[in-house]
Write a structure and sequence with these properties.
single chain; two-stranded antiparallel sheet
């Protein structure tokens, strides 16, 4: 498990002035796209694979906040329509939070590589903490389309590490083909490490 405590996403200051429900998309979306590198805060799916800007939504991470705090830039996340629809206004109850079940905020804490890992055989996400398990479940991060994309990325990485296949054609055509594949690969969900190997020593509880 990674020992890094750095958040996966470094959030900027966002737009100046107050944000309101009616202007969130016009004012906050450009900043969210830049800060989140055009990827969903939760699934890491790229805007282009998600179907373009129109398919991306602005999620209020903590829907229990009220007034200006709810619409503050620090509470806004770039999300695919799928993730936003699954999360909706859901938020763990007090007893769930006490048990460690909560949503992970990638702008304030590490998520992938600490709470969330990828099974190298099934390419499904695995939660190793109560927070990780809750996060996967509430956002449906093992939806078929996410698993398909992670599998395609894994296949590409495997093929890239093997000897290149014979290509019967001009070298410039091969170069163009490889460039196209590289550009497509870079849009896939980034690499996610597998779960940490079990040890024979005493178990140390994972932080929730």
């Amino acid at each position: 498990m990674s020992d890094s405590l750095k958040p996966r996403i470094k959030r900027g200051f966002g737009p100046s002035g107050k944000l309101r429900p009616h202007n969130l998309r016009t004012r906050a979306l450009p900043y969210l796209l830049e800060d989140f590198e055009h990827r969903c805060a939760y699934s890491m799916r790229h805007v282009q694979i998600a179907g373009g800007i129109r398919q991306m939504e602005i999620d209020h991470f903590d829907p229990t906040l009220r007034s200006e705090a709810r619409d503050s830039y620090s509470n806004l996340m770039l999300a695919t329509r799928h993730c936003n629809n699954m999360k909706k206004d859901g938020w763990p109850l007090a007893h769930q939070i006490a048990a460690g079940s909560r949503l992970l905020n990638p702008t304030k804490e590490p998520d992938y590589g600490r709470h969330l890992f990828e099974d190298p055989k099934t390419h499904e996400l695995v939660g190793v903490t109560p927070a990780g398990k809750y996060h996967i479940d509430i956002l449906d991060l093992n939806h078929d389309t996410f698993v398909w994309e992670r599998r395609k990325r894994a296949v590409y990485l495997k093929l890239r590490g093997e000897s290149p296949v014979t290509f019967l054609g001009p070298l410039d055509k091969l170069s163009q083909l490889l460039q196209m594949l590289k550009e497509q690969f870079e849009l896939f969900i980034p690499y996610i490490p597998p779960p940490p190997a079990p040890t024979n020593g005493p178990k140390t509880p994972c932080a929730s």
